[in-house]
Write a structure and sequence with these properties.
The protein contains 13 helices and twelve strands. It is an alpha/beta fold. The protein is globular, with a radius of gyration of 24 Å. Bound molecules: pyridoxal-5'-phosphate. Pyridoxal-5'-phosphate binds near residues 236, 265, 267 and 294.
Length: about 450
């Protein structure tokens, strides 16, 4: 601890007359704690073996910040450690440096994206950054978007808007379509939207984990004939299990034919539209009505960071605008709280803005390329006589040993996870179609070639 750190004079709130020197030194001590953790991130397990963090309730008399340091430390050192190069289990990469700074600024400003008068510059930033994303994705000037605290909320924003745009918001036959590998958030969305399980049509996949396009058209026709009112088809751009991409362009054709809203769940894969090397179907994003993109999942923008980009911003306005009687309104600027389900909302856009400004288009490309290269290297190094692998064009791969029954698989995967953990590797163990898999997600920029070689050597010997 810095000796000059004056613990006593930290004010409850920063103010013009307040002790800014003390705040500065408290912030710098906090940064030091965090940076120490980063500097040890390769020595610390991806997931600490045990947590020594104990919750202690607030006392009658407030505690000095200095006295809280031990507790903060034990919280930090009992946390999941995404910056360890072996952290390859989920879509939770290490935090991008400038994004951490963005979070600090957002906290300091404490503005509210509910309304322009509570976040004048940041509301404009969010509007314009969403519009920039939309143009990058190939949409025209009617497009725009909104940020929300996660992909689940943006999928909900999209489905609610789709249903509203077709005037089906109170129709009990309102139905939407997903593929078998679509994200679980759609089940949640259906519950929130008051839709029964028979109002979700689930389309089978082909053997590459993509929506089967022939079945899609058949099911649409059958369901319309049975009185269902379909309002949206969801195409997944990057499935959770193996990063597959549904045939977006063909799905778009079918949606046009039946006048259905096409929503793309690009929570995982949407950001790959920034890749200079084109991946099949990603350049058809602009044929959709809406797309969810989660920069928190691949680029390392700190959580949460999710955008919903829509072809026509009016659709969000119509679905969500209620008027905010206690706030000023400006005909020329829609308050950001009227474009989605969230009301008060933090300035999460700052860390996305700073993060991608810092990376630049070439830095984004570099991070995305690296993720793909690592997945390919791993796939190459894994013994293909021993394992069946499942992956799409992105950075996710699931695998199981060949010739092993489902009971043995449960034990094998669980044992494999333990052995990997002892070697500071964390992979996930998804349960999918009645059996366990191991899954690796290569979104960790700190993972180097030799880590992947070590990982595959361990697995090949198991
Ligand atoms: C993570 C994920 C979501 C949900 O996003 P959250 O930010 O966790 O709410 C939706 N779809 C896909 C494909 C995802 O991977």
């Amino acid at each position: 601890m810095n000796k000059d750190f004056n613990k006593k004079n930290l004010d409850f709130f920063p103010s013009a007359s307040g002790a800014n020197e003390e705040l500065l030194s408290a912030l710098s001590e906090t940064s030091r704690l965090l940076c120490n953790w980063f500097s040890r991130s390769d020595k610390l397990e991806p997931l600490p073996k045990e947590s020594n963090f104990k919750f202690q309730p607030p006392k009658e008399r407030g505690e000095d910040f200095e006295n809280l340091f031990d507790e903060i430390n034990s919280l930090i050192y009992s946390s999941f450690n995404p910056s360890n190069p072996g952290s390859l289990a989920h879509l939770d990469p290490p935090p991008l440096t400038l994004s951490i700074i963005g979070d600090l600024i957002a906290g300091g400003l404490n503005n509210n994206l509910l309304a322009n008068e509570l976040s004048p510059s940041i509301s404009i930033l969010e509007k314009e950054l969403c519009e920039w994303f939309a143009l990058m994705l190939g949409f025209d000037n009617n497009s725009g978007g909104i940020a929300a605290s996660g992909g689940t909320l943006n999928n909900l924003n999209a489905l609610a808007s789709a249903r509203y745009s077709l005037g089906l918001q109170t129709n009990s036959n309102a139905t939407f379509v997903i593929s078998k590998d679509a994200h679980v958030s759609f089940k949640k969305c259906a519950r929130i939207l008051g839709l029964k399980s028979e109002n979700i049509i689930i389309i089978d996949n082909d053997n590459l984990g993509r929506m089967d396009i022939n079945k899609l058209e058949l099911e649409i026709v059958n369901n319309i004939n049975n009185g269902k009112k379909i309002f949206a088809v969801v195409a997944t751009l990057g499935t959770t299990m193996r990063g597959s991409i549904d045939p977006i362009s063909e799905i778009a054709k079918i949606c046009r034919k039946f006048n259905l809203w096409l929503h793309i769940d690009g929570s995982i894969g949407g950001i790959y539209s920034f890749l200079k090397r084109k991946i099949k179907d990603i350049d058809s994003i602009n044929e959709s009505n809406s797309i969810t993109i989660n920069p928190q999942k691949v680029l390392g923008i700190t959580k949460t960071s999710s955008l919903l980009i829509v072809k026509d911003i009016k659709n969000l306005q119509e679905a969500f605008q209620t008027g905010l009687p206690y706030l000023n309104s400006d005909e020329n600027f829609i308050n950001r709280g009227e474009l989605g389900v969230q009301g008060s909302r933090p300035a999460e856009i700052i860390k996305l803005w700073l993060g991608i400004k810092f990376l630049g288009i070439s830095g984004i490309n570099q991070v995305l390329e690296a993720s793909l290269e690592k997945r390919k290297l791993f796939e190459k190094k894994l013994d293909n006589e021993k394992f069946n692998t499942y992956s799409g064009p992105l950075h996710i791969i699931s695998f199981v040993p060949k010739n092993i029954n489902n009971d043995e698989l449960s034990k094998w995967t669980s044992n494999a996870q333990k052995v990997l953990n002892m070697n500071r590797f964390m992979l996930s163990r998804p349960f999918y179609q009645n059996k366990y898999f191991l899954r690796a997600v290569f979104g960790n920029f700190n993972t180097k070639q030799y880590h992947i070689e070590k990982l595959s050597t361990i697995l090949n010997k198991l």
